Predict the structure.
Amino acid sequence: MPCSIGWRRTGCPSAHWTFLRILWTRDGLTQKELSDLAGVMEPTTFSAVKAMEQMGLIERRQLAGNRKNMHVFLTPAGRALQKKLVPLAEEVNHASVRGLSDKTVAILRKALITMIENLAQEDGGEEEDEEV
């Protein structure tokens, strides 16, 4: 999640970064799908979506023939933020690894991904145990 002076000047809370990143590549998801992909609980997603809607970054609407699910779509303003926020995120990423060799960064990234996957499996395992 990028955090820099440049980021704060965009007026977009950094907490929305994950949701925006997902929607930039997969616009039109349901709120449940967005929650799952972001790895957060649905109430967290609901609050973020509501705030982003009030900011004019997204809109929620039902698809024709499906009145059950609300889908989340970027507005032109939400899509335009990609050109501002992605370079800021890249800047933060570069700053975070300054002074580390490419090999160290690769090892660190692999270790972090493994840790995240391990935790996701643990989380999934607990849910399975609870259902039995």
